[in-house]
Model the fold of this input.
Amino acid sequence: MVKQVKIEARDVSMRFKDVLAIQNATCAIHENEFVAIIGPSGCGKSTFLYTIAGFEQITGGSITINGKPVTGPGPDRGVVFQEFVLYPWRTVMQNITLGPEIQNIPKAEAERRAQKWIRLAGLSGFENAYPSTLSGGMKQRVAIARALTYDPEIILLDEPFGALDVQTKNYMIRDLQSLWTEANKTILMVTHSVMEAVLLADRVLVFGSRPSSIIADVRIDLPHPRSLGDPVLQQYEDEVTRTLSAEVDKSMRMERRTVA
Ligand SMILES: Nc1ncnc2c1ncn2[C@@H]1O[C@H](COP(=O)(O)OP(=O)(O)OP(=O)(O)O)[C@@H](O)[C@H]1O
Ligand SMILES: [Mg+2]
Done:
């Protein structure tokens, strides 16, 4: 069966005043695919994700979701931001049930859905705590639990495991992996970790240095769940790392030239 295209970006460009962040980025992401985005710092990964989320208006090209142009945010897309955005006046539970609340889902049902992700995110017992009393990693886990409770078709993750310790990160990676296989979501995840990308994703899109476009689209042709010790996985990790290292070198040389 041919999978439907869920997200399509064609020749997307994004300019902020005098900074051309993205130039001619083109890709198609299919239903139920897990796609990772990797690239040098500052190349436009978050920007690309937020244009798909509908938070930023592109300055060239087109982005469609299910064939319809993106005109703004929508309930079909859930976002976990690079910097966790929690409402300080709402408790952990109230932050997590925000999505169902907007969708007018009764409170008891919303809390029942939330409980599953609260437990998996290791937040049990903190339901009534306020964000200011949580650690950075805990806030990040609230943000992830919120996106999962929202239950959108598409999940957009911007470095979701960045602030977590290795142990918690491994738990969350495993949960994300089983969520994705169970729930048939389309996931687009920005990460700096090649290991995370090849472990989780069907495809890894490598973004080039600014003005950025997609310079490589590497299919990770291995069944899920994958094991870190798999030598084929390591070959993929080496392949993506080589492409990325060349780009990071290039972007660092360019930054230095700009500064000098
Ligand atoms: N709202 C904005 N206004 C002006 N410039 C912006 C804005 N958002 C991003 N930029 C610029 O666009 C470029 C890409 O930024 P972006 O945050 O997308 O990078 P990134 O690839 O996510 O980097 P990192 O890996 O460090 O998170 C940068 O040069 C940044 O300064
Ligand atoms: Mg970013």
In short: Helices lie at 45-53, 92-96, 98-102, 107-120, 136-150, 166-183, 194-200, 231-259. The two ends are 54 Å apart (CA to CA).
